[in-house]
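Thread: Newbie trying to understand structure tokens

Hi all, I'm a second-year student working on a class project, and my supervisor (Dr. K.) asked me to get a predicted structure for one chain before our next meeting. I've only ever worked with sequences, so writing a 3D structure as a token string is new to me. If someone could post the tokens and maybe explain what I'm looking at, I'd be very grateful. Here's the chain:
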Amino acid sequence: MSLSTLFMASCTAEGDSNNSSNSPITSEITSDQLKQSKPQQIQGKLIYEAIPPVRSVRAYRGDQFFLITNPQNPRRLVLRPSKNVSDQQLQSFHNQQVEITAVYRDGTRPSAQETACPLDVDGQCLPQGDGYHVLSIVTVEK
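---
Reply by user tm_fold:
Sure, no problem. This is what the structure looks like when written as tokens:
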């Protein structure tokens, strides 16, 4: 397996550069383990889906980049650009096998009184911006 690097950046304000795990995430890892706030290396197929210009939950949340980690049992992780990797860079990896270094960040919930938003079962705005903020990305050639 060889890696071709587009952009490798040291983790600064986005996260801690001391990542104790260098092994890729596998399908046996639980959702709670994936949602750690420290940088992780994850492999999968990057998918870009343009956000349609209509009001929808997906448009509200801004979900357009996904990582499929296991084709037999697909799990779509939402990817977000960061100051290290732009949305144009993520888009250039569409339909490619990649390895990312990313950190999970929770989203924010605007006030339902201040903005129009889709609501959850508790009547609160759905969160925006949650997902894996990509610190670096490389293609993985088989």
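A couple of things are worth pointing out once you decode it. The helical segments are 31-34, 57-61, 87-91. The two ends are 6 Å apart (CA to CA). Feel free to ask follow-ups in this thread.
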